[in-house]
Specification:
single chain, about 160 residues, 5 helices, mainly alpha, about 0% strand
């Protein structure tokens, strides 16, 4: 494969990864917010409802118990932790993409030799590996095909509207 195509493929992969992480973060944010809302409403409203509708006290007691369990295990759920990891990773990847995108003009116009392109590509890939190590460490994100498909669609739309 020629070096320009390799550079282009890397540029597309970085943007796709940014979109993927963005979709992942949005999903994590929604789940985190749902859990917080659920625990807030059930812990406060259920006690009041229990006293008003004592006829259904078993149901209200169960709701309160579930709310307390969710509150206790919330710190072990991945959603908040993912947001702490993903948001800074996206910001760093966006900077990497911006640099690669800036250099793409020189690559596409033949202003750089194959050797220079290869050096630039190596530098970008090395930086990507450093960012991945910095942000993900041993925390891996479970691959989500739905998120990947959404990111692929956004990537196609982005490059179609910005480069074609």
């Amino acid at each position: 494969m020629d070096i320009q195509k390799r550079y282009w493929r890397f540029l597309v992969q970085i943007k796709a990864w940014i979109f993927y992480l963005d979709v992942y973060a949005e999903s994590s944010y929604k789940w985190d917010r749902r859990i917080n809302i659920f625990t807030a409403i059930t812990s406060s409203a259920s006690i009041a409802a229990w006293t008003i509708w004592s006829k259904y006290n078993f149901i209200w007691g169960a709701i309160i118990a579930v709310s307390q369990i969710v509150s206790a295990i919330k710190q072990y759920l991945p959603y908040s932790k993912r947001l702490e990891i993903i948001r800074p990773f996206i910001a760093d990847l966006q900077l990497l993409f911006t640099k690669a995108d800036y250099m793409w003009f020189k690559v596409a116009n033949g202003e750089l030799t194959e050797n220079e392109i290869n050096e630039e590509l190596f530098s970008l890939k090395k930086r990507y590996a450093e960012l991945e190590q910095k942000h993900l460490k041993q925390n891996s994100l479970v691959e989500n095909k739905k998120f990947r498909d959404m990111a692929d669609q956004k990537t196609d739309e982005y490059f179609t509207s910005n480069y074609c």
